[in-house]
Write a structure and sequence with these properties.
Length: about 350
């Protein structure tokens, strides 16, 4: 068989393999489109198409090359190279398939809705588990590639005989990293935090923006980002304002003089809330929560459907209540008092 004919057979086989791959992808695309949104289906297929085509071409080529005899005169062992390429392509396909599966599942859970507790739970679990599975796939693939090369495999076997002390040293060195990964797995299962939870960490108010295997990104209200190790949420106390529901309550404190008519402010608070689209019409409370020698402390308790709206509602209510006191009852603004009776009596005696 001539060299030209051998090459032509391999090229023709690869082309046929590509057509087969596109046919299979088309069938999968129809199945995905039937069960999900068109844009999500296209994104899923975009992720897995290229590695799948590479895998089909690799299978076709590895079958035809030995049959045509093109590799008979090659000096090195091609099975090692093919094994490494197979491992890389399969790992690539698995990683992309995990991303596509994540997109396919998350399309049914919209995190932007008001009542998004379940959606945030699913998003958090899948995001953390995807990263863990990708890390496992990469580690296993590297191990398979190293074991495929005979020279490295022989070195590895000889090293295993004297790896006791080295294993202990590596174990101590990797203790922190292992703890971080286990903490990430624990958070994915127990979920003390979820994506877009409103939390207070280290005195900072913010929202959980990203959860990785080793750290968590918190989006602070002023657009800063607070990065904390993931073990923080296992080992230290923190506040989660949306642990069981996306609904959140906010407080506004106003200080007034003792003569202030509290009932009038209750009416005003109700009026403010009823005229605001931020209020979810669930909580509307005004109470005297404290007093000292100078003022009364009034606390307005209000609620909103999510933490950003609760923040805006608190700011709005505070501004309106202060304006109400200034305009309607300026005489009851906080003031200081000085008792001059004793000094006046002393002046009279003198």
């Amino acid at each position: 068989m001539s060299l030209f004919l051998q090459i032509a057979i391999v090229v023709a086989g690869i082309i046929v393999g590509i057509f087969i791959a596109y046919a299979i992808i088309g069938k999968i695309k129809k199945l995905v489109h039937r069960n999900t949104d068109l844009s999500v289906g296209l994104e899923v297929m975009r992720l897995i198409s290229l590695p799948f085509i590479f895998l089909v071409v690799l299978i076709t080529g590895s079958m035809l090359l030995p049959a045509t005899g093109l590799l008979d005169n090659v000096a090195f062992d091609t099975s090692i190279g093919l094994g490494i390429i197979y491992t890389i392509v399969i790992a690539w396909l698995i990683i992309k398939a995990l991303g596509g599966l994540k997109l396919y599942v998350l399309e049914k859970y919209d995190i932007s809705t008001k009542d998004n507790l379940k959606a945030r739970k699913i998003h958090t679990q899948l995001s953390v588990l995807e990263r863990m599975l990708i890390a496992i796939v990469v580690i296993i693939s590297i191990g398979i590639i190293l074991m495929t090369i005979p020279q490295i495999r022989k070195v590895g076997v000889s090293l295993l005989a004297s790896a006791g002390i080295a294993g202990i040293i590596i174990g101590f060195a990797a203790q922190r990293s292992i703890a971080l990964i286990l903490a990430g797995f624990q958070i994915a299962i127990t979920q003390p935090i979820r994506l877009e939870d409103a939390v207070i960490v280290e005195g900072e108010w913010g929202w959980i923006e990203e959860i990785t295997l080793t750290y968590v990104v918190i989006r602070i209200w002023d657009k800063r980002r607070l990065i904390v190790p993931i073990t923080y949420f296992i080992e230290k106390p923190f506040q989660n304002w949306t642990r069981t529901s996306a609904d959140i309550m906010g407080t506004v404190f106003i200080h007034v003089d003792y003569g202030f008519p509290v009932g009038e402010m209750r009416k005003k608070l109700t009026e403010i809330l009823e005229n605001s689209d931020l209020w979810d019409r669930k909580v509307n409370v005004l109470q005297v929560t404290d007093s000292n020698d100078r003022t009364l402390e009034l606390r307005a308790l209000v609620s909103a459907s999510n933490s950003p709206k609760a923040w805006d509602l608190r700011v709005h209510v505070r501004e309106e209540l202060i304006r109400f006191v200034q305009d309607e009852y300026p005489q009851f603004l906080p003031k200081g008092r000085i008792n001059l009776t004793e000094r006046s009596d002393q002046k009279i005696k003198e």
